[in-house]
Specification:
This protein is α+β, with helices and mostly antiparallel strands and 266 residues long. The chain has 3 domains: 71 residues, Alpha-Beta Plaits; 73 residues, Alpha-Beta Plaits; 77 residues, Alpha-Beta Plaits.
């Protein structure tokens, strides 16, 4: 790994899988100034170049060189394709001095993230960020959940009506499972409930992460349905918390509470 390098991120329209990503990777590495390259199946191309190379020159060369056959290279902020979705998020507790650090963490931690751009330069502790991601492999709920697992508190723009208040993510510890058939039975039962959005559960961890609309479905109903199947269920507090931008479930107060700060300072 070269410590003194410049990072260039491009979006390559036409990359749809690992095979096409490999083709672009080989072509990018054919440029002498390129030290390293990583191309994801979402089209995000992260390139390392020597530090003494003029940035503007190498960026234009890369865009020209990586636009070939059915592939079209562009700056990540200009990324446009049917599978690319744009979202604006307010990150609380993130100062502008940490923007570069935070964006690097998001690029590294979120597979399918194409673009990450901070949109303000104010000296406050809240930052507005524009994200573009590959909606073929990453849902908006998964994107926000990963951000929470990385320790960031994210709030959707209040004008965005695609995610409204009432969406809750809760973790439930389940005892009594004997095999993966038990997992499938629980997931099918909860997934069919009106108001259930998503459930993730593995036999090894025995903790169900349930996303639901609390305006339609209650936590008590979810727990009751699990217990009807013959399992013991309890809201878990000893695993990492994840949530969606408007609310998280507070197991102490038994009510929805606004999520207003990050789990650790940046």
């Amino acid at each position: 790994m070269h410590t003194l390098t410049k990072i260039i991120r491009l979006f390559i329209d036409g990359v749809v899988d690992d095979a096409s990503a490999s083709i672009v990777d080989v072509r990018a590495r054919s440029i002498d100034e390129v030290i390293g390259c990583r191309v994801s199946s979402s089209g995000l191309c992260t390139i390392q170049v020597a530090p003494n190379i003029p940035m503007a020159d190498i960026e234009l060369r890369l865009i020209k060189h990586l636009t070939f056959d059915n592939y079209r290279a562009m700056f990540v902020f200009d990324a446009e394709a049917p599978h690319i979705t744009r979202i604006e998020i307010l990150l609380t507790g993130v100062h502008r001095l940490n923007h570069h650090y935070v964006s690097d963490r998001l690029y590294q931690g979120i597979q399918g993230l194409v673009s990450c751009r901070f949109m303000d330069i104010d000296d406050n502790d809240d930052s507005c960020i524009e994200l573009k991601y590959d909606s073929r492999n990453l849902s908006r709920f998964e994107l926000l959940s990963i951000m929470y697992s990385l320790g960031y508190s994210a709030q959707i723009d209040s004008n965005d009506t695609s995610l409204k208040s009432g969406i809750v993510v809760v973790q439930i510890r389940i005892e009594g499972m004997h095999c993966n058939s038990c997992v499938s039975n629980i997931c099918a039962t909860i997934g069919d409930l009106p108001g259930a959005i998503d459930i993730k559960l593995t036999f090894e961890e025995k903790i169900a992460v349930v996303t639901y609309d609390s305006r339609i479905l209650s936590l008590a109903h979810i727990v009751t349905e699990i217990e009807k199947l013959g399992f013991k269920a309890a809201v878990s507090t000893d695993h990492y918390e994840i949530g969606l931008p408007l609310f998280f479930y507070n197991t102490d107060s038994k009510k929805q509470s606004p999520l207003i700060r990050s789990r650790f300072s940046n």
